[in-house]
Amino acid sequence: MRVIIQPDGDTIAALVAESIVDLVNEKPNAVLGFATGSSPLGIYRELIKAYREGRVSFKDAWGFQLDEYVGLPADHPELYRNVINRDIESQVDFAEGRVHAPNGNSEDLQSAGDEYDAMIADAGGVDFQILGIGTDGHIAFNEPGSSFTQGTHVETLTPQTREDNARFFGGDISRVPTHCLTQGLGTIMEARKVALVATGEGKAEAIAELIEGPVSARWPATILQHHPDATVLIDEAAASKL
Ligand code: GLP
């Protein structure tokens, strides 16, 4: 696992976006793994800028989201499918039907998870996975105690994660869904390249565990220590407990 410490999130975003631009220019049908949360937003802004400057086209690329809330209405602004559509998909030139999310409104969530893993495999597997990290060390929505080998599956969100994400739901934790459909750690580990980005002191403990702790389901992100091509990009505040 490579660790890159930079002074701020903008520098990190520019670095990650440049790697993605290079990849897509080299492999136009690259499969990109999109994360939600605030951490990847700078990367999306840089990708949109590169597209507008004519430095990259996504017309043959694919996008697969990490996770989705269970039970949010299709037009809910915080449905992750809508978030990714708003923050990146609709602002560049992805072809119709090329960006996907797990279906958190399926009648049979586990079948929807299995179908999602099959779709990723059919597209050729994820070439570049963008990741954030939760304060409890979760990646995607794999909460502490998650299996290291599972595919896309249903998770119960911890009170901590619901509290962290309440800011996207008007600060009201009761409006944050209790469950989600998430790529498993097994799915994420199959991505050929992974870039995990984190900024701010709130992430410092999770980052210290990720980089210096033992590999343990207590801190799900630690499985990335076994990934053959994972880079952790953090600012000085997120690195403050190393
Ligand atoms: C959510 C997402 C994760 C993300 C995490 C951190 O829980 N499911 O993929 O990493 O939030 O979010 P933020 O980047 O806003 O701190």
From TrEMBL:
Keywords: Carbohydrate metabolism, Hydrolase
GO molecular function: glucosamine-6-phosphate deaminase activity; identical protein binding
Top-rank taxon: Bacteria
Gene3D superfamilies: 3.40.50.1360
One record GO biological process: carbohydrate metabolic process
Protein's organism: Bowdeniella nasicola
Glucosamine/galactosamine-6-phosphate isomerase domain residues: 11-227
Active site: D67 (proton acceptor), D136 (for ring-opening step), H138 (proton acceptor), E143 (for ring-opening step)
One Pfam assignment: Glucosamine_iso
Family, as annotated: Belongs to the glucosamine/galactosamine-6-phosphate isomerase family. NagB subfamily.
Protein name: Glucosamine-6-phosphate deaminase
EC number: 3.5.99.6
Record pathway: Amino-sugar metabolism; N-acetylneuraminate degradation; D-fructose 6-phosphate from N-acetylneuraminate: step 5/5
InterPro entries reported in the protein's UniProt record: Glc/Gal-6P_isomerase, Glucosamine6P_isomerase, Glucosamine6P_isomerase_CS, NagB/RpiA_transferase-like
Keyword Translocase: no
Record's function text: Catalyzes the reversible isomerization-deamination of glucosamine 6-phosphate (GlcN6P) to form fructose 6-phosphate (Fru6P) and ammonium ion.
GO cellular component, one term: cytoplasm
Catalytic activity: alpha-D-glucosamine 6-phosphate + H2O = beta-D-fructose 6-phosphate + NH4(+)
